[in-house]
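Dear U.,

Please find below the material for section 3 of the report. The protein was modelled together with magnesium ion; I have listed the sequence and SMILES used, followed by the predicted complex structure.
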Amino acid sequence: MLKIMVANFRHIDLRLVDPPFGSSLNTLILELDYLRRKPLVGTTDPTIFFQLKNIFHLLESIGSARIEGNRTTLADYIERKIEGSKSKDERFLEIENNERALDFIEENINYRKIDRAFLSEIHKIITKDLSLPPKGEGSRNPGEYRKNNVSIGGTKFIPPDFTQVESYMEELFRFINKNDPPQYNLLKTAIAHHRFVWIHPFDNGNGRVVRLLTYAMLILYGFRVDRGRIINPTAVFCSDRKKYYHYLSVADNGTDRDILIWCEYVLKGLKNEINKIDKLLDYKYLERKILLPALKFALERKYITEKEYKILLLAVKKQVIRASDIKSIFPDKLPAEISRMIRRLKNKKMLKADEQESRRYVLMFENNYLLRGIIEALDKEDFLPIPIN
Ligand SMILES: Nc1ncnc2c1ncn2[C@@H]1O[C@H](COP(=O)(O)OP(=O)(O)OP(=O)(O)O)[C@@H](O)[C@H]1O
Ligand SMILES: [Mg+2]
């Protein structure tokens, strides 16, 4: 049926493979399904939650962008966030593009199908303003399928002839959108991930797009990031790229057994990530392990004064505070002085007036010096899926 035009390219059928009854993969699927449906501990104020989620978007994006010295990049990127700088450093553009693509997915996934137009938009977003390979991580044809044959660095695998891309992609979209019984959703996510990079539809950026596709499919299949969940699937693939490439090449063999080995690698990684991140949604944990250490860190480095520390500490404990709460920790201070302290913390972007009620304040940590301590604490708790190199 399909003419083989690239030497060494070997067609494999796109299909669902059933894991053997009682296999560890079957157990994994059940465990993930349990996690998917598990009600989240809803104790965290939405403002805090959304800041956390933004930080995870950032980590997801740094993980996915292929950059030498990821940790330095992370540190530099954090400083850039704190300073609100807009310089056109390509390293940072690639990360920002990825963050934008995540937002795009979250805003659109409930209203749109995963189809050519959807992935095309994602590809345009992630390659925007980046210079062309081999120097840069951009694309000659943003949003369009490749017009040449390609090879992939770091593997012997050869993707199909460019003339076959469109029909392979149509088949993939049918596979993704077909109404299979829900117990296949996670297997489909893993299989579609491999299939997409196996087709390699774009001239560049396939890895970044496929990790976003996985993100989109997980939301579609019920990991509801709009209802208080955070997922970071890229950690599975990018914290150890060697392993990722190894399992992709196993899947290239195309036998049922090899496809299942790939699926198990993906789902095992996902389960670990989801379990880990879910802990953060328990406010007690977040407070003790992340927010309080971050405040201490800021105090020690004198990003904040003792008084500010006390106020922010109260903000961490109560999540939402009023001027009267601050008054209670500084009984000798006049209201004007309290107002001044609040104003100073607002200027430092560490407190923000609550959207519902402007006389209430919430802690901000995603775009100011507190972010350094937050990242430090996340690192200590093993939340940074970033290879040291
Ligand atoms: N053996 C393999 N079979 C199929 N796909 C593979 C194989 N090895 C690697 N890949 C995929 O190819 C991607 C690289 O392709 P490409 O350069 O187009 O993507 P990128 O987004 O620009 O780069 P990167 O993913 O390295 O950041 C890898 O991320 C991986 O997903
Ligand atoms: Mg590339």
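For the text of the report, you could mention the following: The chain has a mean pLDDT of 93.

Regards,
Y.
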